[in-house]
Amino acid sequence: MPNAVIQPTPDFTWDPATRPPIAGLRPYRNVTYRLEAETSGTKFIVHNYGHGGAGITMSWGCAHEVVDLVTSHGFAPAQPVAVLGAGVMGLTAATLLAGLGLKVTIYAKAFPPDTTSNVAGGQWAPSLVNHNNSVQFTRILRRAFTTHSSKIGLGFGVSKRLNYSPQRSATFESAPSDVIPPPQAFKHLPFAHFTAPGFAYATLLIEPPILLPKLLADLAAAQAPCVAREFANAADVLSLSEDIIVNCTGLGAGKLFNDRLMIPVRGQLVMLPAQPGLQYLFSGHGYLFPRQDAVVVGGTDEPNVTDPTPNLAMCKTLLAYVKNEFQAAALRAKAAPIPDWFIRGK
User: Fold this and answer.
1) Mind giving me the DSSP string for 171-236?
2) What is the pLDDT of residues 64-86, one digit of tens each?
3) How confident is the model at residue 1 (pLDDT cuts 50, 70, 90)?
4) For residue 313, what are the contacts with CB-CB under 8 A and spacing of at least 6?
5) Domain residue ranges of the chain, discontinuous segments joined by +
6) Backbone angles phi, psi at 199, to 5 degrees
7) What number does CATH give the domain 27-261?
8) In 10 A of CB 24, how many CB atoms?
9) What is the pLDDT of residues 152-167, one digit of tens each?
10) The overall pTM is greater than 0.85
């Protein structure tokens, strides 16, 4: 077990009046995310949605799968393609399709910074996602990690980080070991007041406030326009002039395509002031991700909550539990049952 340098303790000072919490509704799909093609008349539709809390994690891998489906179908040079949705799934798919020389247009109700992808911590970890095809899922994770890694240092907000955790993480260990290797084990985690053993996983931090504007800028440079449009139903989608349509509408796909497997899962975040001295990630019951814009403390797991308004009392509880992990033993609050809305092993 390594003797690690003691890491700095976060400053958990928070004024919700000046830095209010934020919340978003994850597009969670029971059984499995949807990544498949269908034909309706002259329209070839590729569905790419339902990734729960793993949208940023899986994004580039799913975008490569979209390209595979479109390529297998066939296309003409500079053929028009519609991409629906401007979250990370839509923007990464649009990026790779534009790279094929296709004439891509992105249609969306909202664009960054007003998408669900903007309300994400940003760690690379396949959490809160279902799948029923382990071969495809593994391929997506490998391609996603490789592509995210290739963006390090290129303005996409991607960096290598260690995630320290008091227990082994089923989330990280669901990824292939050539992507996320077995963790380092510690007699006690390298923080001032930790006395219990723990682990460190080598992963990536992907910062949405940097990634999403970069994708938009690159698409603008590739002459892929963004068009504000909200679709009422599948017939409205099929009225588009483009014959190739890539559906990355996330939670909205449930209504558009009558997909009853889709449910919202609310996630809430406390945004502490940025602390450049913190260069690690932490997860257990809740998580802490130091980014350039903020130290993000999450996370909640609230299925079938349709209101994206954050709950201040829950956010204070969330912050208290994560802070408690870093307290000296004499100050540590007496252990209390973990609320059932905490993410386990992010």
Assistant:
1) HHHTS-TTTSPPPEEESS-SBTT--S-EEEEEEEEE-HHHHHHHHHHHHHHTT--EEE----SHHH
2) 999 999 999 999 999 999 999 99
3) very low
4) none
5) 27-261
6) -140, 160
7) 3.40.50
8) 20
9) 999 999 999 999 999 9
10) yes
